[in-house]
Design goal:
Helices cover 75% and strands 1% of the residues. It is mainly α and 467 residues long. Strands 1-2 form a two-stranded antiparallel sheet. Strand 1 and strand 2 form a beta hairpin. The longest helix is centred in the first third of the chain and has 41 residues. The radius of gyration is 21 Å and the shape is globular. It binds phenylalanine. Phenylalanine binds next to helix 1, helix 2, helix 10 and helix 14.
Length: 467
């Protein structure tokens, strides 16, 4: 008899954990910059349409697969009697592995900024970009580089915190942390939103975000919004399958999907309505989307110019810290769940070993920053994650190729192999009829796969950044 699988302790616990996975650096850093670039309101409308027509059906499919199979992402397909689809889970686990290794380091940088605003905001204001480069072991003025010890130490702290919560388990660790972290994140967001919108000059930024400017929209804007939606909703990464597998049969999958996607999108929108107006107010339209290091350097200008800026600076980075931590936990959990179940390893040992391996791999990313010029920094506000050595390659591999392929696999599995009627039967296990059966079947069989294939083909053809 198999040991009993972990389960979420409460409904709200699951929702917060899944939303915690989705809400991350992608929402707060990437989305506002992309929205600015893609014509403000126009990008927002495109993004909303994508979440509705593709994001929601794909997430519902992943959660349903996990719950039906009650297994990790790889074994789920076997349990549902289509072992031929195991590769979907494998890709997800591999992508989660790769992303965790750098995500934890970036989380460490964010943690450094919380401490930095608390203790030496003057230093950050004096030379925002220099401060950021300094953290990564680079002096732009002299060209000098060094081993970025501080960044590595903070990365280690972040990874250790992630591992600690995972070791505590699904209910006591992941669920409990998210129950505290997610509400804290919403409170901080609202405070920052009020602050940003009441700054003199914010109105211009606000109207930019509200009034669609279609002249900036191109085919690649749409592609980029699709990629952003997948990344932001944590799709194609084995995570929603794993989280779905901890769900009880009486939970309402459709409602949960809509709530999670809604929360993720809401946070992205609020972040956009904080950052763009605040930057318009302090730095003018020119200040937005200035490329490399934007999130670290231009935002310093924003905090410097607002009364009580130091406090808001600390709050902002705390917000990012929560968001990054809850996402990183989910990434690591996807891999840990797979390794513990498949190889029968103990949860604690698996977490520690994987955490250490991923952390060491991530050190390569952090250390490689210093050897390059401004262009290569990960948080290029315009282009998303772009690392100099591995960045372009890794990003291509994960965001443009593997994530869409894994999401495509989930759609093809539900649409054509397992069949929508089986998914619908699983969805209706809670006893409530699923009203949108026809629409769901159509989206998962045709629309979502076709759109995903277009992304994959087009990204090869155009080389568009899709992160
Ligand atoms: N969705 C998270 C974000 O927007 C990132 C993430 C990706 C988390 C993949 C888990 C898995 O930042």
């Amino acid at each position: 008899m198999e040991p009993k699988r972990a389960q979420w302790g409460s409904k709200v616990g699951f929702i917060l954990a899944a939303a915690g996975s989705a809400v991350g650096l992608g929402n707060i850093w990437k989305f506002p910059g992309k929205a600015f670039e893609g014509g403000g309101g126009a990008y927002i409308l495109i993004y909303l349409a994508i979440v509705l027509l593709i994001g929601i059906p794909v997430m519902l499919s992943e959660l349903t697969i996990g719950r039906a199979a009650q297994a990790n992402a790889v074994d789920s397909f076997e349990k549902l009697r289509h072992p031929g689809f195991k590769w979907v889970g494998w890709i997800g686990v591999i992508v989660a592995f790769i992303i965790t290794s750098y995500y934890a380091h970036v989380g460490g940088w964010v943690l450094r900024y919380v401490a930095g605003y608390a203790t030496e905001s003057g230093k950050i204001y004096a030379d925002p970009l220099g401060y950021f480069y300094g953290l990564l072991g680079y002096n732009a003025a002299t060209g000098e580089t060094w081993f970025p010890l501080t960044a590595i130490i903070f990365g280690a702290i972040f990874m250790a915190a992630t591992c600690y919560i995972i070791i505590k388990g699904v209910e006591d660790g992941i669920e409990r942390f998210n129950k505290f972290g997610m509400p804290a994140l919403f409170i901080i967001l609202i405070i920052l939103l009020v602050r940003a919108l009441t700054m003199p000059g914010a109105a211009e930024g606000l109207s930019y975000m509200l009034i669609p400017d279609w002249s900036k929209v191109t085919f690649s804007t749409v592609l980029s919004a699709l990629g952003q939606a997948f990344f932001s909703l944590s799709l194609g990464m084995s995570i929603m399958i794993t989280y779905g597998s901890y769900l009880k049969k009486e939970e309402n999958l459709t409602k949960n999907t809509v709530i999670i996607c809604g929360m993720d999108t809401l946070v992205a929108l609020i972040a956009g309505f904080i950052i763009v107006p605040a930057v318009f107010a302090t730095l003018g339209a020119e200040g937005v989307g200035k490329g490399a290091g934007f999130a670290f350097s231009s935002l310093a200008g924003v905090f410097q110019q607002m009364p009580g800026g130091q406090i808001f600076g600390i709050l902002f980075y705390l917000l990012l810290l929560f968001a990054a931590l809850t996402s990183c936990i989910s990434l690591l959990e996807g891999v840990v769940a797979f390794v513990t179940e498949r190889f029968g390893w103990k949860r604690t040992a698996t977490t520690v070993i994987l955490g250490i391996i991923m952390f060491i791999i991530g050190c390569v990313y952090t250390c490689s920053q210093a050897a390059f010029d401004i262009k290569g920094i990960w948080f290029d506000f315009k282009n998303g994650f772009t690392t100099p050595i591995f960045g372009d390659f890794m990003e291509f591999l994960t965001d443009r190729l593997l994530i869409p392929i894994s999401a495509l696999g989930a759609c093809l599995f539900v649409g054509w192999a397992w069949k929508p009627q089986n998914a619908i039967r699983e969805i209706e296990m809670d006893g409530k009829p699923f009203g949108l059966k026809g629409a769901y079947s159509f989206l998962v069989k045709y629309l979502a796969p076709i759109c995903i294939i277009v992304i994959i083909v087009a990204s090869f053809a155009t080389g568009t950044t899709l992160s």
